[in-house]
Amino acid sequence: LIIFKERKFMSHLVETMAYAGEVPWHGLGKQVSDNMSPSDMLKAAELDWTVTKRPAYTIDKPDCWNIVDPTGEANFLRCEDNYFLVRDSDNKILSPCGENYVPFQNSEVMSFFKKFTQAGQMKMDTAGSLKNGKDIWGLAKLSDSFTLPGDDRMEGYLLLNNSHQVGKALTIMFTPVRVVCNNTLTMALNSGAERFRVLHLQMFDEEVKKAAEEALGLSNALSKTFSEQANFLSSKRARSPELEKFIAELFQPNLLIERGKTSDHSKLPPLQDEFKKNAELVYDAVETSPGANLKSAKGTWWGALNAVTYVVDHKKKSQEKGNSLHSAWFGSGAQVKRKALSKALEYAEA
């Protein structure tokens, strides 16, 4: 039987967080020095806790289901092959799990960065806990960076997400950031090597870490592929009809379907006139978002892509800041940005 005490959490999805350097775009967390080791960052972000897999029990009296049995007549029954993943510091239940589930400790996964920080290839940037401890992340800034025409600088980061939830894998992935506007982009590589996933069915040991390094090409130029994509997009013009269609495909695909049913397109209003809020925000951001007038972005598919990432990261007012952070990296926001990059490349190639 697991008895746990209630703990007060922040209203948004960020539970604890530490960051080095400037205040992040979402404005959350506490500032630390920019030379933190992975273990130091772990402690600063209050992630120095462990989880254990504990057996699940039920009771043999249905009428005592929601109360503690005052008579002491109910017996506890072991739920075979069923467990709970529990945070040891406060007995918070993070997830139910099965017999074969292998927990990854926060200290184990954060040690993945150690080799690279010691070699000067990366510097710890942020780390923290999302969704009351169910998602843990560490973010390291890569030494590699590149600049597009007009002094449009991109910096590369390696993001590690360890989920303490059954059914979710540990994920390591690249996440480039456009400095002028702090947009977080997502890679769209045909090889699928933009991310590495580890299911909780094996230990997160040195063999797995080595496999991640090889799969992600961490011994090579870390941002080479994305640099090629960004330079290509910045060299291709995004003309109005295609740009409007690009935005509609991302945010209002049904609008294109309905307009396609019309036999006489001359009677249709301009596509942008039928845009709803998010599509309209993106259309405006093409001209007004930070960095929109840089040579790399003005009138190009790179500018169109960054209009999308700017709105997804910074303009969804309905979300709390912590929710936006989770969405930008792991949730619906990340999916939209990945699709936007793929679509932008398609249009640019055409």
- Average of per-residue pLDDT values: 84
Helix/strand order: EEHEEEHHEEEEEEEHHHHHHHH
Give the biggest sheet: 9 strands, mixed
Helix share bin: 25-40%
Number of strands: 12
Low-confidence stretches: 1-11, 188-193
Estimated structural class: alpha+beta
* Overall 3D shape: globular
Number of helices: 11
Task: Report, as a whole number of angstroms, the end-to-end distance.
Answer: 61 Å
Q: Give the amount of beta strand, in percent.
A: 15-25%
What is the CA-atom radius of gyration, in angstroms? 23 Å
Description of the molecule:
The protein has 350 residues and is of the alpha+beta class. The chain contains 11 helices and 12 strands. Strands 1, 2, 6, 7, 8, 9, 10, 11 and 12 form a 9-stranded mixed sheet that branches. Strands 3-4-5 form a 3-stranded antiparallel sheet, with no helix packed on it. Strand 7 (135-148) and strand 8 form a beta hairpin. Helix 6 crosses helix 7 (253-260), helix 6 (240-251) packs across helix 8 and helix 8 (277-288) crosses helix 9. The longest helix has 18 residues, at 332-349. The chain is globular, with a radius of gyration of 23 Å. The relative contact order is 0.12. Mean pLDDT is 84; it is low at 1-11 and 188-193.
Which key features would you list for this structure?
single chain, 350 residues, three-stranded antiparallel β-sheet, 11 helices, 12 strands, 25% strand
